[in-house]
Records
---
Amino acid sequence: MGEILPHRPVLRIVAAFSRYDEALAWGRARCEQAFGPIALESERFEHHETQYYTASMGEGLRKTFWAFESLVDPAELVAAKIATNAWEAEFAAEANKPEARPLNLDPGYITEAKLVLASTKDRDHRLYLERGIFAENTLFFRGGTWQLRPWTYPDYQRADYHLFFTRCRDYLRQRYRAL
């Protein structure tokens, strides 16, 4: 029988995308208010790999990632997804934009071995956590690079995303050494 041990804290990330700079700024402020200071921020990537979001979010989407200073228990993913969904609805109600979903906030976390994203949608490769939230192991780190899963979203296959996730992983490892 294996010994039950607590999980090491993980690096919380949030993927944010929108066609509006003010939506991304609003989302950043809301996330910092709840999750604390941002340690790393990616550039704003053009989101063009899929048309899935066009109907609800419009065209010309840009995505950015935020990694937060405070390391957290991975079990906090459920509360983070519930919160970010509520913030999306709050922004949509306040912003008076023509799109139904002018801001998308997707929380997840990075460990030394993987990138996990939260979802409200059940699929064969997702594990149910609680309160209507599922977790997806989107990428894994092996041999010095991020590796894809058959279900990895098209944009998460991008090398420029992987460079940012490697920066996040390096930051996490530095934090572990400091503990």
---
Amino acid sequence: MIRDATICDALPVLTAARLVLRPLQPSDEALLELYTSDARLAEGTRSIPHPLPPGVTAQFIARATATPRQEDVWVMDGAGYDKASVLGLISLKPLDRQQSQIGYWVAPAFWNAGYASEAVACLIKANPHKARTLFAEVFQDNPASAHVLTNAGFDYLGDAEAYSVARRANVPTWTYIRRM
């Protein structure tokens, strides 16, 4: 269960080998809008609509940077490594009993380059929520995302389904758990 508590702490900046995980900023809006307007990306998430309505990206940034907020969101920033300033996003949502749920997406232009794996490993190592357990879910038609989780030490927990706004349907999911 997601707890009602909110997060007020500032997000730490986390460094990985080829990217930095940093807080969102208003200047990220154009790239986020470009990436999330791609049907392939939107259909791989629960919450990104397709087509992307005007103002949705700005509203998302406002929620993600507010204090208090419901989840922590980091940008996968590759600018210091001759890549784009936004490669994707990764998030942690606090749950009950020292648990958090991790979520991530990478822009299609950067798929199959290992950025999701690197970001997930970086966030696990930092464990900014001091979680004892992490959960994640992926759509069953996205085995690459499941591979990211198993490589990061997540174990398969079971099948479920989740509603995808872009697909306008419930989609079968695989759920994963990682004890810290």
---
Amino acid sequence: MLMNEVSMDADDVVAKLRSFIEDGGYKPGDRLDSERELIVRLGVTRARLRKALDTLEHEGAIWRHVGKGTFIASPVVASGPGNLAILSKQVTPVQLMRARLALEPAIAREAALHASEEAMRRMKECRDRAVEAPDWDEYEAQDDNLHRLIAESTENVLLLSLFDHLNAVRRAVAWNTVVRSSERPARTHSSFAEHDAILGAIEARDPTAAQAAMRTHLGSVAARLFGEV
């Protein structure tokens, strides 16, 4: 046990981790330091740290993905302890996909009306990183980031919060393991052209086209996973 952890109980470690996140200026979607770095920074053991991370994840303050890391959740998600755990057990993957089809095309429409030049630049950079991703984990991380950047570009905090809440449930829902036949997405992967269409419509300030392009993209994802939704 680390010397400065001798008098620290589980609640102390959780409080220390919360303070670290607050003082670090992390924003929703930011990746938290690795477990190895947090152990050193907080002066706690791996076992205590993991219990504290479990607590914050249950509260909805963070979300974790194997191979990607630990990320900060939306304050709206974090404000309802237990809601995420309850919803994730009640929602099926198909229902989740239908919810995305209901919300995200409308978000893309708003993005076309309100996205700034800086937001557009960030979305394009994220799209390009997805294309160059060396493996599926990195592609999926960049795909997640791109969809959130589109929500951010609406400059509507309520829409962004709704997106974050939906996305938190998406990560918690039990998905069947997707079998990959390659190390990374092929250059002809349909999502690349679909992302281009979405961003092209947003940049052209065409809300109807942006909405349709997002619906086409999510419909394509749904078809690969479930057939029809």
